[in-house]
Automatic annotation (TrEMBL):
Segments forming domain tRNA(Ile)-lysidine/2-thiocytidine synthase N-terminal: 36-215
Taxonomic classification: Bacteria, Pseudomonadati, Pseudomonadota, Alphaproteobacteria, Hyphomicrobiales
Primary localization class, coarse: cytoplasm
Cytoplasm is among the record's keywords: yes
Protein name (record): tRNA(Ile)-lysidine synthase
Function summary: Ligates lysine onto the cytidine present at position 34 of the AUA codon-specific tRNA(Ile) that contains the anticodon CAU, in an ATP-dependent manner. Cytidine is converted to lysidine, thus changing the amino acid specificity of the tRNA from methionine to isoleucine.
Species whose genome carries this gene: Methylobacterium platani
Binding site residues for ATP: S40, G41, G42, P43, D44, S45
Record's subcellular location: Cytoplasm
Domains: entry comment: The N-terminal region contains the highly conserved SGGXDS motif, predicted to be a P-loop motif involved in ATP binding.
Family to which the UniProt record says this protein belongs: Belongs to the tRNA(Ile)-lysidine synthase family.
Keywords tagged on the record: ATP-binding, Cytoplasm, Ligase, Nucleotide-binding, tRNA processing
Pfam families reported in the protein's UniProt record: ATP_bind_3 (PF01171)
GO biological process: tRNA modification
C-alpha cells in the first residue's frame, strides 16, 4: 500500500502530477517553439494528449496520428483520435505510411517510418519537439529485448527520456515525459477522465518479439524482476554511460597526434590508448570510428556490433599496442593499423578485384 503522500501506483495521474511531468516540455517556461504529440489512440498516447490539453500551455501543440496501413481498423482508430483531439481543442494531423511494407523486421521499419513522418510534420509546423507516450513498461520491455540481443551497457540503458531526433540549426528533440509512469496508471487516467482509447492487437501478437517478452513480464515480476527494477537498471546504466562517454571524449582529445587531415586519417598515441581502462579504450575506439566513418561512402551506415568491436580492439589491437607489435584490422570500413607507438585509423583500401564506388 502506498503512503498518503505517494501517488497510487495503479491510480490515475492527478492534475498536479501530470503538470509536473509535462511542464518542462510544453509549459509556459519550456524552451521550445512548438510540439507534435504522437498519438496512436492507445491509452498511453491518449493520456498524453488529454493531459497536454488539460495543461493549457501557450506552446503550439499539434496532435499527429501515423496510420501505418497494417491493420483494417487503423483508419477508424486514427479518426477516433482526431475526434477526441477536436473535443479537447487540439489540432490533429493524419500521417500515412504509404508504399510497400517489408516482410521482415516489420515493426522496426514501421518505427523508422513513424519517426520520419513525425519529424517531417514538426518541420512543416515549425515545431522543435516531438512527445511520445512511452511508459515504464515500455522501458522494461526494451531492456529485456536488448538483453536477449546481447547488448552492452549502451543498449541496456534503454530509451532515453529525451534525445535528438534531428540535428542542425533547426534541431528536433524527442521526449518521453511518461517514461517513469506504469502503463496501468495511464489506462486509469483515461478511464477516470472519460478519454476513449483503443488497444492495438499487434501488442499481443506472438509474431513479434516484444509481444512474446511482454507475456514473460508477470513471471519475471514474481521472481522480483519487476518493470520498475528493469527501468531502474536502465537509469543506472544510462548514468554510467554518460560518465564513460565523457571520459572517452576527453581521452580521445588527449590521444590525438596528427589529427584528421586531408588524407582522412586519425592518429592516436598507442601506449596512451593501451594504458586506459578497457571500457574507456573501447569507447575511444568507437568514437574514433564514428568520426572517420561519416565521410566514407562505402562504409556501412550502421555502427559495428559490440562483439566485433570487442574482438578487434580488446583482443587484438590493445595487446599489440602493449607488446609493441604491428597489427592491422578492419572494422566497419575503417582500417586500424598499430605500429611505431601509434594507432592509425583510415578508410579501408579497396580490395583486389573490387573498385571503390565512384
Amino acid at each position: 500500500m502506498s503512503r498518503p503522500d505517494e501517488p497510487d501506483p495503479g491510480g490515475p495521474l492527478d492534475a498536479d502530477e501530470a503538470a509536473r511531468l509535462l511542464s518542462p516540455w510544453i509549459g509556459p517556461d519550456a524552451p521550445f517553439r512548438g510540439a507534435v504529440l504522437a498519438v496512436s489512440g492507445g491509452p498511453d498516447s491518449t493520456a498524453l494528449m488529454g493531459c497536454a490539453a488539460a495543461l493549457g500551455s501557450g506552446l503550439p501543440v499539434t496532435v499527429a496520428t501515423v496510420d501505418h496501413g497494417l491493420r483494417p481498423d487503423s483508419a477508424a482508430e486514427a479518426r477516433a483520435v482526431a475526434d477526441l483531439a477536436a473535443r479537447l481543442g487540439l489540432p490533429h494531423r493524419l500521417l500515412a505510411w504509404t508504399g510497400p511494407k517489408p516482410s521482415a523486421r516489420l515493426q522496426e521499419a514501421a518505427r523508422t517510418a513513424r519517426y520520419r513522418l513525425l519529424a517531417g510534420l514538426a518541420h512543416e509546423a515549425g515545431a522543435d519537439l516531438v512527445l511520445t507516450g512511452h511508459t515504464l513498461d515500455d522501458q522494461a520491455e526494451t531492456v529485456l529485448m536488448r538483453l536477449c540481443a546481447g547488448s552492452g551497457p549502451a543498449g541496456l540503458a534503454g530509451m532515453a527520456p529525451a534525445r535528438p531526433l534531428a540535428r542542425g540549426p533547426d534541431g528536433l528533440t524527442l521526449a518521453r515525459p511518461f517514461l517513469g509512469v506504469p502503463k496501468a496508471r495511464l489506462v486509469a487516467t483515461c478511464e477516470a477522465r472519460g478519454w476513449p482509447f483503443c488497444r492495438d492487437p499487434s501488442n499481443a501478437n506472438p509474431r513479434f518479439g516484444r509481444a512474446r517478452l511482454r507475456r514473460l513480464l508477470p513471471l519475471l515480476a514474481e521472481e522480483g524482476l519487476t518493470p520498475a527494477r528493469l527501468a531502474r537498471l536502465a537509469g543506472r546504466l544510462r548514468r554510467d554511460e554518460a560518465a564513460l562517454d565523457e571520459a572517452a571524449a576527453t581521452a580521445l582529445g588527449a590521444l590525438r597526434r596528427d589529427g584528421t587531415g586531408g588524407e582522412g586519417r586519425l592518429v592516436l598515441d598507442g601506449p596512451g590508448l593501451a594504458a586506459l581502462p578497457e571500457a574507456v579504450a573501447l569507447r575511444v575506439a568507437g568514437l574514433a570510428l564514428a568520426e572517420l566513418r561519416s565521410p566514407v561512402p562505402e562504409a556501412p551506415t550502421y555502427p559495428p556490433r559490440l562483439e566485433r568491436l570487442e574482438r578487434v580492439v580488446l583482443d587484438t589491437v590493445l595487446p599489440a599496442l602493449r607488446d609493441g607489435r604491428p597489427c592491422r584490422r578492419t572494422v566497419a570500413g575503417i582500417l586500424l593499423a598499430a605500429g611505431g607507438g601509434r594507432l592509425t585509423l583510415s578508410p579501408e583500401p579497396p580490395r583486389r578485384g573490387r573498385a571503390r564506388p565512384g
